[in-house]
Amino acid sequence: MFSLALSRRNAFSTVILFFFAAASVTIFRSWVRSKQYAHKYDAVDWKIADLDSRLPTNEHRRIEHISDDLTTADHCVFYNFLRSTDTETTDHEPITLALHSTINYAEHVIKHAENWDDVLSYAIFLFPRHDEALQALAMLHKCHDTVNRKVSIHLVWNRNFLIESCVSDNIVKNIATIPESLGSCDDFDIESFVEKLKEVKVPFGSYPINVMRNEARRGAATKLHIIGDIETQYSPAFAVNVRPLAQQLLNGYLGKAVLVYRRFELDENEKFPTNLRRFSNLLADKKIVQFHVKHYRVGHFIPNLQHWLQYSLNNDEVTFDNVSYISSEWEPQFIMRHDAPYHYEHVPTRMTDHQFLCYELCRAGYSYLLMTHVYNIHPGIKDGATPLEKSLGIYGLAQTDPTMRKFRAYINARYPIYQKSRCPNWKNYL
Ligand SMILES: *[C@@H]1O[C@H](CO)[C@@H](O)[C@H](O)[C@H]1NC(C)=O
Predict the structure, then answer these.
(1) What distances in angstroms separate CA 10 from CA 15, 22, 23, 24, 406, one per listed residue?
(2) Looking at ligand 1, which residue's alpha carbon is closest to its atom 3?
(3) 255 lines ligand 1 (CB under 6 A)
(4) What is the Cα–Cα distance from 242 to 372, expressed in whole angstroms?
(5) What is the pTM for the complete model shown?
(6) In 285-332, where do the E strands start and end?
(7) Sorted alphabetically, which Pfam families does this protein's record hold (predicted)?
(8) CA 120, CA 97: separation in Å to the nearest integer?
(9) DSSP alpha helix (H) spans, 256-366
């Protein structure tokens, strides 16, 4: 045999040679990548005409491996594990409510499906053995009419580093056939579904929040996205009320922009206000406060609340106010087009994860347009971080420096430095 013919010395030099060859390929590849990247800025610049070509094909169930890149972190996704069955075409572009959570929060998706007038894309992060609860989830999706029509569910997990491709991961073997092997809906009820979820144990570990936000967007079937928090609730007919504005955003009439909505917290003894009158009474009684205003004011405060309320109470037309982005700590939530930047995925959990997108939007030249009339409410008024959040926060902070250096390199390479002066400084990093 050939290998037997090799002397020891030859074998040694072959190994060295092979090593060099492999190293050069890697270096060459990353050089090519950096070259491609240098051109990216033109390619992502604002062009309405390109809109369709960039829409992901989300017709199918498919498994993808997202690898480490400038903005993405390595993980696996099963898109459309459960697919919305609504194929009705509409005369408007629906706004996809993009939700994400671990599986134990899945019951909240029922309420969202019932309240949200357009479609939903829900990304679930699976920890090991969480696939056991997927059977129950699949039953919900099959048997709950509204969830079935409106919600598409995607699964995200960390790739087993011993396995090259996501498709051959064991997890996939266990779950791929679930939707076909379900029992009859006669055996389904929501209470036992909720009970089943309570059995799920979520390990103390990091939840890759920006990956999850992105996967909920990547799995979306429409060109307008709104990323929501699974536990919160939107004002009635939110999607219908903002539809005219959202279509303008889509068609480019608002320029490069996102449509911001106000967020609040509600005293846990009060019922959700289903109209602006009741909302305004609760606000006057301090049973409603601006979201996290006690906990992290600079991150969430939006000025002119009274003016906003008076306009919204006394006018029918939903309009907007152009709000300036004055602090890199501000982290509003909004409706955006599918071609707006995605969240930076190389961020440790709780390290001000959403601020990375808000800052990037500023550098990319976006404006923040605050919509009147509509709101989003988080149940319970928060007055401080929980111990778990504090410890995760400290963990996040410890990684600030390397993360910020990496982000700075990315941002400054992608967006013209001369635009930097339009955006507030980010500590002394940016
Ligand atoms: C919002 O304000 C910015 C900065 O002044 C401006 O460039 C942009 O055109 C405004 N957008 C709208 C829709 O008025």
Answers:
(1) 9, 18, 20, 21, 42
(2) 367
(3) yes
(4) 9
(5) 0.84
(6) 288-290, 320-323
(7) Glyco_transf_49 (PF13896)
(8) 5
(9) 276-284, 297-300, 305-314, 355-363
